[in-house]
Amino acid sequence: MKTKTLLYNAVIYTQSDSLVVNSMAIYKNSIVAVGNNLEHDADFKSYSKINLQGKTVIPGLTDAHTHFFFFALSLGRVKLHGLESIEACLQEINSFANKLKKNEWVVGEGYSPDQFKKFIQPDKYMLDDVTGGRPAFIYSKDQHSAWVNSKALQIAGITSQTKDPQGGEIVRFENGEPTGILREMSAYIDLYNKIPQPSKTKIDKLYKQALAFAYQNGVTAVNSFDKENGFAYFAEQTEKNKLGLRINYYFPDTVLDELLEHKILFGTGDEFLRLAGVKIYADGALGSQTALCFHEYIGSKNNFGIEVESVKSMTKKMKKALKLGYPCAIHAIGDKAVSNVLDAIEELPKLHFGAKHRIEHLQLIRKKDIKRLKELNITASMQPSHCPSDIKMIHKYWGKQGANAFVFNTLQKKKIDLAFGSDAPIEPLKPLEGIAAAVLRAKPNSREKFYPDEKITASDALYHYTVGPAKAVGQEHCRGMLMPDYPADFVLLSDDITKLAPTKLYDIKVLATIFDGKLKYDLSNIFKK
After folding, report:
1. What Rg do the C-alpha atoms of the chain give, in angstroms?
2. Domains defined along the chain, listed by start
3. How many helices (H) and strands (E) does the chain have?
4. pLDDT at 446 over 90
5. Parallel, antiparallel, or unpaired: how do β-strands 178-183 and 169-172 relate?
6. Which pTM value belongs to this model?
7. What percent of the chain stands above pLDDT 90?
8. Exposed e or buried b for every residue in 126-156, given b needs 16+ CB within 10 A?
9. Following CA atoms 337, 413, 424, 222 in sequence, which dihedral angle do they give, to the nearest 10 degrees?
10. With CB atoms counted within 10 Å of each terminal CB, which end of the chain scores lower, N or C?
């Protein structure tokens, strides 16, 4: 777009209260005015004018929970998402492995035994047969379990004599021999860290692909929960003016002491890369049956999930983070984990600087803990696309407790702040599909609605993908809306998302994405005229 551009004849959802206008003026990379019929205003006589032909405009979408650097790397790995049998997974892995060098690692993700038509738990021997002697590491769909082969176990030094780590599990056959399934990060992280990183050239290529994917789906900003290597890469790209998104970054809790040593404060950064908080894990995940719950998993023998961090440990870490002004984002999926997080936050002094503590995922919560969530002013950082994906597993493992899962409407009625995301690469980086999931609570073309009383409107869901993430990081004064002095980050849609029939929401398309005043993706051809 030109330095001075005025967009008119549009339906522009500013996200500032209920303000909807038909025109917007942009100077360089910032919005200077919004209103009606600004094309006739003498103040904008010198502006280049673009007729948007009645199309809908929304703020650039923010995904409030991603692992964006990891997502970029995942584009170069074998993908097993959606495969419905162990045979299909093994065939895909074999095809991928055959293209690798002899000693190159086979790395992938996305297998889910609960999605197989016939449930079967993978083991190391299955992987041995299709990886040609190469070491292999395959993440489960929820990335709370790893499926590895004999070569990888040998490299890790994991044997029948190896004890389970704190907060993790080495799954074993009846004779005590490891099966090749490692549950939770503490069980697999040492092995994962032995996998060689792709070359710098390959990482750059994958990152560009990740940016292109984000733009195609209207994403201009993310909250990213990556390891230190991810932050280092983001910082490098920022210096080169190639970051391509507005990223609020959350450090893993493993670097808390280093942050304190160097006195790196909350909010450090610029308009593109900013330090926003510290990530802590309270439990595991539903798919791996490690989410910490008050009720045991149906069909299990005394399995209530895994407590990755105790209340005492979480409280200690959060107090450290607060010394630097950092809010904490705590992964908690099971209702017991959520309750533990609330117990920990109750012990803390109040936050300043506008940002808030967040509970990531919050898939299951007891009714009596919702009041505490509100009183403690905690953001519910949730992923609507997990809801349709997890319906089968919720019924299978949580049963009637599922009535307390993904309670979007209940939380919204209690005026608890919601910030929506995808958890990419675990679910696709597609906010519009997330909006559809929040409204329909069902997979595309499925009649099975998951507790439909908890659905919300598309307007509300859109708010939770724009203003919600901005509020979660203390930036609602400068992000998430289309208002004067806000960045020119916006999206052109094929339909009015707030008025489209719910059953059509999965069909809505991004026609164009503008980031920092620059056209990044365009199917409309409107901006090229």
Report:
1. 23
2. 4-59+488-522 (2.30.40.10), 63-68+198-472 (3.20.20.140), 77-192 (3.10.310.70)
3. 16, 24
4. no
5. antiparallel
6. 0.93
7. 94
8. bbbebbeebbbbbbbbbbbbbbbbbbbbebb
9. -110
10. C
